[in-house]
Design goal:
173 residues, mainly alpha, globular
């Protein structure tokens, strides 16, 4: 089977924008997800304690809709990369959400795992959008050598940032 990067967009399930319109995706979804993600984050970590049913309904429906759009726009192969990114990001998500909560005098361990589900999923969706943006802004999507370089740099920089935040969080905790 031919690698996804060498197949036309239609073969990978991705939308073909022909170079036009794709730049609308990043600001639109970036702002839209920031609003929904922020509201989900604030609901999950509210001082009154979260109403998990509402947090899951509010966040779950939005996350499902984003996944449908991601599959239609970026294709199955890229969404699979998002899942790889999620695996890589477990440490990063934990460390960065922990770091954000520390800004508000809270600790990530003060909440049961169920509270973290929606904020963590938003984090995965947002970092996926960031990687897609990097591939497009560096014109690496259709250049295998440059794409490999961007992917490797993304993983290395992510691990460095996540490791430093995790270490800092553990040192302060």
């Amino acid at each position: 089977m031919e690698p996804a990067r060498n197949r036309p967009a239609a073969a990978t399930g991705a939308a073909d924008f022909g170079g036009k319109g794709k730049w609308f995706i990043y600001p639109f979804f970036g702002v839209h997800m920031l609003m929904f993600g922020l509201s989900g984050f604030l609901m999950a970590y509210s001082a009154d304690g979260p109403d998990l049913g509402f947090v899951y309904m509010h966040g779950g429906i939005a996350i499902l809709v984003y996944m449908v759009f991601y599959l239609a726009i970026f294709g199955r192969d890229e969404v699979q990369w998002m899942l790889v990114n999620a695996g890589l990001g477990i440490l990063g998500i934990y460390s960065q959400v922990g770091w954000i909560l520390e800004r508000f005098g809270k600790h990530i361990g003060d909440y049961p795992w169920k509270v973290h589900v929606v904020p963590f999923l938003y984090y995965i969706l947002y970092t996926f959008l960031l990687r897609q943006f990097l591939l497009d802004v560096t014109r690496s999507r259709d250049n295998p050598g440059r794409r490999t370089l961007v992917n490797n740099a993304y993983v290395i920089v992510s691990l460095l940032v996540y490791g430093l935040l995790f270490w800092r969080m553990r040192a302060n905790g």
